What we know:
Layout: E1 5-7, H1 11-21, H2 27-45, E2 51-57, E3 62-68, E4 73-79, H3 82-92, E5 97-105, E6 112-118, E7 127-131, E8 134-135, H4 139-149, E9 155-159, E10 162-163, H5 165-174, E11 180-182, E12 184-185, E13 188-189, E14 195-196, H6 202-207
Parallel strand pairs: 1-11, 4-5, 4-7, 7-9, 8-10, 9-11, 10-12
Antiparallel strand pairs: 2-3, 5-6, 13-14
The structure holds uracil.
Amino acid sequence: MSGQVFVIGHPLVQHKLTLMRMKDTSTSSFRQLLREISVLLGYEVCRDMPLTMTEIETPIAPMMAPVLDGKKIVLISILRAGGGILDGMLEILPSARVGHIGLYRDPKTLTAVEYYFKVPDMMADRDCIVVDPMLATGHSAVAAVDRLKETGPRSIKFVCLLTCPEGIREFHSHHPDVPIYTASIDIKLNDHGYIIPGLGDAGDRLFGTK
Ligand code: URA
């Protein structure tokens, strides 16, 4: 079974992504653009979320109106660059709960090593949206979702800004049940595990650490 991949081709997303890719884009612009794109990706990822009806009163009349159960949504940020997407998504999902998974990439083996894991309780009732800007080798994403599945969430979706064929293949070979939402599938990985053409190191560009 191969998994689903949704490429968000909306012109606003594509335009902002191009600005983010440019090597001379400043840290503050990069951060602002990631926040804005994340709002738009969040809009797409919520497209099929279930609504329940609740009774409200408008100034004119009572009515039954649809609502999302925001408390059932958990945004899971993969540290550290996931924080850039998290901020944008929280703007449109302010009631969402938040979990964090800390993984670092072993520079020699490129495999993921966990150093932090904290998610809300009652995961069986919750729909998770895992966020990480770059789905590159796929090792961290696979490890994060492996770990998350141990908590038994109701559903999991994965949102990234960029990915590549190698990352999608690796991720879906382990988690074909988890759909990927992305703004672009780039050409390939280089020998250091970076996406080509990509945008460089998302964490460094977001936090200005290089
Ligand atoms: N992580 C990044 O930040 N950039 C890449 O291109 C790959 C992994």
